[in-house]
Amino acid sequence: MSSKSLLALLLLLVSFNIQSQEENLSRTTSPKKYEATRIKGAPQIDGRLDDQIWQDIPVTGNFVQIEPGDGNPERETHKTFVKIAYDDEAIYIAASMRDVAPQTIFRQFTQRDNLGQSDFFLIDINTYNDGENQTRFIVTSAGAIADARMTGENEDYNYNVVWDAAATIDEDGWNAEIKIPYAALRFPKKEEQLWGIQMGRQISYLNENYVWNYVNKAVGKASQYTGHLTGIKNITPPVRLSFYPYTSAEVDHFNANTLTNFNAGMDFKYGISDAFTLDATLIPDFGQTAFDNVELNLTPFEQEFGENRAFFTEGTELFTKGNLFYSRRIGDSPIGFNAAQRERLNNEVILENPEEAALINALKISGRTNNDLGIGFFNAITREEKAVYLDTVTRETRQRVTEPFANYNIVVLDQQFNQNSSLTLINTNVTREGHFRDGNVSAFLFDVFNRSNSFNFTGEAKMSNVNHPHQNITGFASSLGVNRTKGKIRYGVSHDFANETYDINDLGLNFTNNYNDFYWNTSYQIFEPSGIFNRYSIRLYGNHLRRYKPDITTGTGVGGSFFAITRNRFAFGGFTEVNSEFKDFFEPRREGTFVRYQPNISGDVWISSDYRKRFALDMRVGFQDFIDSPRDQFNLRISPRFRISDRFNMVYGFRYNNSINRPSFVSLLPRQIIFGNRNMESIENSIEASYNFNTKQGINLRFRNFWSAAVFEEDTYTLLQEDGNLSPTSILPRQDPNANFNIWNFDLSYRWQFAPGSEAILLYRNSLFNLDDQSRLGFTESLENLLGEPLRQNLSLRIVYYLDYNNVRNIFKS
């Protein structure tokens, strides 16, 4: 699609969507309203609701069911009553959740942002009442808290602010008391606030969820169905300035060497205005981040890892627009790391070759104006890294820059309108000092609903520019989709395109380019219980995949899936697909070549039992069978979970994969490419356990062992032909392609949240790693070899203290 056609379509969609969303939703129900009461003295946040100030404050209630029913009134035996007050510092919520049988209330002790198996009360606050951007606050019946930044129906629980809550259980049910300081919210400076508000309650043993303001699940997004909180007058947004100084110490022991390290630094947040916040990390310390789930990777693509650093996950909803930001690029392996390994001269050994580019500092500015314009700016800087070589004959050393001083930038403009639609401009830029690769990507995105919320139109146009020392390469990608978003029967079509030079991998992540793909889907789902089911959906889908240059078909497939959850919270489902012959242009590792893979049938089935039980089980079994080919694949996942008590919880995970006779890349020759039939087996065992003394202190354990062996069958080596077929050859690869991979990681931590926003973490971890060519060894023999490797052990302590400018100022005043 040309840029002119794309622009014309966009203008048509925008002109079709002028009316406000409140008008669109008025056919369903008018939003509820509640007027908050100003108070002179703050209540004690202890969950008891016996403070005198609560006695004269109006109450609201009449919650309605959202799951499994659709708007059913709350049970007479389980009514919910809420009161809201405010003063110059914060808003206060008192919620009474009546229950005729208090002994049945689920009350599992967990840490922050982990609800576990507990009843809970939530309140969503949209200070700009735009139907899209909310902050969610949750308190469980055990007193644990969770908070999230919400954009539409996306929940980001990495978002943390400082607030307080407590819960108690009595003969009438349970109670929650909440204090949300204004410093935890962004709101406009005006005489009277009008906030969107939604409240909810989960009753676990009944498997029911209720909300204060009715939500029509068949139309639009839940965020559009907030009620109105009025009456908050003459409050001033506080100076939103907070500091998180930290100190850390660690001891690392490996292979008879012991190293110690002491570090100190600070993160801070500053409210530039009532809508915009600056977050910065100075002298970052990521020593206690969780380990990556590393696997034996024999694919042509890098392995993608999740982000474990809080700064890069918290409040990043603007920067992830268009999937152009893969935060692991920042502080990743230097771009010259592998080249430094290869370019070692005769008689040289490598003394140093850093595996990561150290982060110097990072900051982000984000917020949204009164006109729903979201603005984001992100910047990070990494230092120069060098490889150091020693000539063993002359004893001279030399250096090679593997990663220059680098600057990473993101700028985002996101205009929301009609409470559910948006237009977005985003630019990412990576600039490296000197004659190295630079990258720049710009994108325009739209996500538009029609007036009745029955159709959604989405589109993206992205342009990449990679600046090599002597060449600038420009690429382009786009996507366009139309989906029915109302009612039980839904359907949609979409198209994805990228030319052969599209590349966003300086700050983003894309595995493939040069495609021209078409997709379709249709589904049927229910919104109210039917028979034994609380919910189920059936989906049919298909695709037609093409290469852009040359314009040829790479594959076609159709499939179907099913999902269901019963009234007793037993969930199950699965899928099956039939795919045509597939031309893989990436497995050969040489531009313009491809290998043919036979048509196949694949699928899986899965079950997930009721997590409310002391014992629950998740299991998935999958297969892939190739027609007229000995190639086959089987995978199994089993994950039993044990809630031994309300304080002690454990989850065990077992994963098994077995791939047989897969034609796979072995090595490149000057004019030929060698393939071989590969058998690959892998086993993963993992344990996650936690014991919580209360909601502020707990011990957590994480363990993972992953083993994988890749065996290339003898006498099965082949040469790749121009037509993608493979022919037998007597040529042998220069290096043994077989591999045996084994890794072990163990983390044991004690976490103590000793004050709001402040915590201390004591962490012990150890790890083992082994990679060799003994692929004929089984799991047990490989594990024995792994246990013979030197053990890396690390002990660290990190203390973070929260300081709020307003509290510090008041102390000095008094």
UniProtKB/TrEMBL annotation:
SUPFAM superfamilies: CBD9-like (SSF49344). It comes from the Bacteria. Keywords: Signal. Residues 237-812 form the DUF5916 domain. Gene3D superfamilies: 2.60.40.1190. InterPro entries: DUF5916. Residues 1-20 form the signal peptide. It holds the Pfam family DUF5916. This is Carbohydrate binding family 9 domain-containing protein.
